[in-house]
Amino acid sequence: MSKVSSTASEALAGILRDGMMIMAGGFGLCGIPESLIEAVRLSGVKDLTVVSNNAGVDGIGLGRLLETRQIRKMISSYVGENKLFAQQFLAGELEIEFNPQGTLAERVRAGGAGIPAFYTKTGVGTLVAEGKPTQVFDGETYVQERGLFADVALVHAYKGDAEGNLVYRKTARNFNPVMATAAKVTVAEVEHLVEIGELDADHIHTPGIYVSSVVHVPNPTKHIEQRTVRKHDMEEAN
Q: CA separation (Å) from 211 to 4, 68, 73, 83, 206?
């Protein structure tokens, strides 16, 4: 049976509700499920807990949901590049659960693997470890971190088929594959929708068994957070 939806809003119809936890793939603006995030914005759901490495930038990606105050809590590792994110946090308007980046990735992977908790040395003795159980192993102190499992995961892939098999491209792979496994429902937007059987089985990163719905989003905008270019030779001479 085909899992293809005609629009992002159709793919999320009947899934979204107030107060739910959403995972959103991407790193910065690379590999973010922008059309699905926009569908969340248009739905009007609120009091969301969002798991993502960061919250996009002002006006793009999850930054759009911050503008509409639909996010109550972020579980993230990075606040930079988004002034509104920082402003809402510092004003006490947005709850943030900070995670070291590797810990966040492992919490998501653990959730997808059915692992409720694990121990890590990262963050021991810092604010990250406050209120969390600790345990000594071989003379070293470790802090317990809980696995994360969301109500819905929103991911962006380079290629996908009607069965939900997904292939990511280069650095846009980032958090997308682990998040696709760590939710009750996973919805994927794909740049190229191909025929079933066209994807090399050895090249599939996310098997379709994890994916509930796919929406074709051809030619998405590839945003650049910070463009750095070399000065022209004449400018350097001056």
A: 11, 28, 25, 33, 8
Can you give the pTM of this predicted structure?
Answer: 0.93
Helix, coil or strand: residue 5: strand
Higher pLDDT, 234 or 148: 148
Domains present along the chain, CATH in parentheses:
4-117+146-216 (3.40.1080.10)
Residue 72 to residue 14: CA distance in whole angstroms: 21
Taking the C-alpha atoms of residue 62 and residue 50, their distance in angstroms, rounded to an integer, is 9
Pick the closest to residue 174 from 25, 37, 9, 11 (CA basis).
Answer: 25
Q: How far is Cα 32 from Cα 53, in angstroms, rounded to an integer?
A: 10
| Alpha carbons within 13 A on the beta-carbon side of 142 | 12
